[in-house]
């Protein structure tokens, strides 16, 4: 039986964000449940389930966009975890942030790296040092 | 003989942006030549020459960041051309923009797709229609 | 028979934006048809069809958000027309922009008023002068 | 006797923000008293005292603008309280944020809803669940 | 006789922007005259007339802020002219933009330099080349 | 012997930021050492060492840009300290923020002043009250 958008979205959310994503949705339940419904249905059910880009590429794009927005440290936290979950190495996550420097300047990149530090500590991850 | 940062940057700029990138630098020569020098040395010589991410991934990240910034249509034009130059299919460029919708909303994505339309027309490119 | 999200969205889009909205969607057909589909289904079918706020309130909020984003003059054009279509007086549209001054500063407000000028000229509208 | 801009502003500030607004102004007294003076005189004395839009509409616009700016959680806190003070129902405040989704994407909306949660807890407010 | 805020503002506006500033205000007269009134009274009458920073420093700060906002090319045009009017050398204007690179990235700086080019051409100004 | 870019940058970083700047670089050592290297080499070695603007002017521009970006409170903290270190009076720092009001609106200025308050408390600084 074919899944509806919400079910497809829930599955994709679990695949990318594991528990953290479900927690974001659950935390909305008492204040803005429809916001959670739209994130599941539209962001994950419609967008993340599309072809042409794989999950790693989608997380890479999402991280670049969240860094550039500024002020989205909570979402960067969820998606740095998501990037690790779909198999992007920690060194590659840092490299995604470094790639943004010419386009956003250093402050936004520093703030994103600061979030990555917290996530890596939480997950007991050591970053292999990349020196050019 | 090892190339200096400027020479490495010029080579990388040519590899990614072909003529368009050199035109940006040349256009700066009479007003802010050092700005052009820093773009070549730092953006291309230092950042684009790094390991860990290939050129296609770097252009993908750059496009996501430029879209999110807003107001950077001139730079989106250069980098949509750059993405095509390094072998990213037009359908994939559109997909990168679509991936940003949940993070930036529709206006910024519409504006980026508008720039892509102009680039594709200039380069006589037809986008294979992707319907989900 | 109950309409699906796309049909509900098309109806709402026509109600708010008349021809202009349909033109935005049609213009996407050869380059990013799914982007148009999501705007119709999600922005108009899901969000604009909701209860609790009427169409005038929704357009008021949309105008404030587009002004604040900056660089979204094309979308401001569509929604200034939309605001007029749903019955918001031109003087009220200008007042919405003026209300933003303490939060965004003058440049973004000047740019939005500039778009309003073009729309009012196109639609042969004279703004009743509001002096405090 | 006619009030001057500062007095009109203080009255309007009290009407919208009650104690919270006065606290923002008072907190500036030892570091940037003129900043507080301009907020009272210009934002509240000039802008908020204008005709054509009522206080509820002004708070609606202000909330949309603050959400879209990003990084203005402190001001969102003051104005979510202000919106409640002028009689906007909590469900309507959430709906204002939901209306922004197509224009700002989900992160900025999530961050604004997060501030609303804290305000509602502080004020012992339960949001009537709105499901579409 | 002491000038009121509007008169002080008009004088300051003329001192900084010459004709260009008056044109911005005049152009608002048929659509949003109060917006023009607030720019004269508040931006120029209150803020620009303050002590502690001279006009050159104020224009320097304004240019940095407008560059960083993005999408404010019209206002950058007015204030690059204003900076020249108050005696900031063209080379110094370019240097102000270059100083922003580490904080905003290259795109916003390129766009500001693009506006400067147009202003310098209009005013027949040649920039003395600054090479480091 | 002539210093290389990194050494020039370290010297300039110490001159502007004293210990705080070195701490930012050191804190990056275990997660993104190249990010620290680029800040030292490019931001301080290339940009801050340039002619045409002195250190006070550079810090003034940096503060205006960081305020306008929003969400860069950590960097504002470093550079408010930097501004004090290079001899900009606390009253002048506040005035730089006030100058931004017409261009960014009040929220971003309030947030910057909030960071200044913390820095002044940490450094036992009392601001001479400037009333207009």
Task: Describe the protein in words.
The structure is a homohexamer of 132-residue chains. By secondary structure, chain A is mainly alpha-helical. Chain A folds into 2 domains: 1-52, no CATH class; 53-132, AhpD-like (Up-down Bundle). Helix content of chain A is 73%, strand content 0%. Chain A is built from 7 helices and no strands. Chain A has helices spanning 5-27, 33-47, 55-69, 73-85, 90-99, 101-104, 106-122. In chain A, helix 4 (73-85) crosses helix 7 (106-122). The longest helix of chain A is centred in the first third of the chain and has 23 residues, at 5-27. Chain A is globular, with a radius of gyration of 15 Å. In chain A, 55% of the residues are buried. The interface between A and B is medium-sized, with 35 and 35 residues. Chains A, B, C, D, E, F: Pfam families: CMD (PF02627). Chains A, B, C, D, E, F: This is 4-carboxymuconolactone decarboxylase. Chains A, B, C, D, E, F: Residues 33-117 form the Carboxymuconolactone decarboxylase-like domain. Chains A, B, C, D, E, F: GO terms for molecular function: peroxiredoxin activity. Chains A, B, C, D, E, F: InterPro entries: 4CMD/NDH-1_regulator, AhpD-like, CMD-like.
């Amino acid at each position: 039986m074919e899944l509806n958008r919400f079910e497809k979205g829930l599955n994709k959310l679990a695949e990318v964000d594991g528990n953290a994503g479900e927690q974001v949705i659950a935390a909305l339940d008492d204040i803005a449940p429809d916001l959670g419904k739209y994130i599941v249905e539209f962001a994950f059910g419609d967008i993340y389930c599309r072809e042409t880009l794989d999950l790693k590429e989608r997380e890479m794009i999402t991280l670049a966009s969240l860094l550039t927005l500024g002020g989205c440290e909570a979402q960067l936290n969820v998606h740095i975890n998501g990037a690790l979950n779909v198999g992007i190495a920690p060194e590659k996550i840092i490299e995604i942030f470094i790639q943004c420097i010419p386009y956003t300047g250093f402050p936004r990149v520093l703030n994103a790296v600061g979030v990555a530090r917290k996530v890596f500590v939480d997950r007991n991850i050591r970053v292999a040092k990349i020196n050019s």
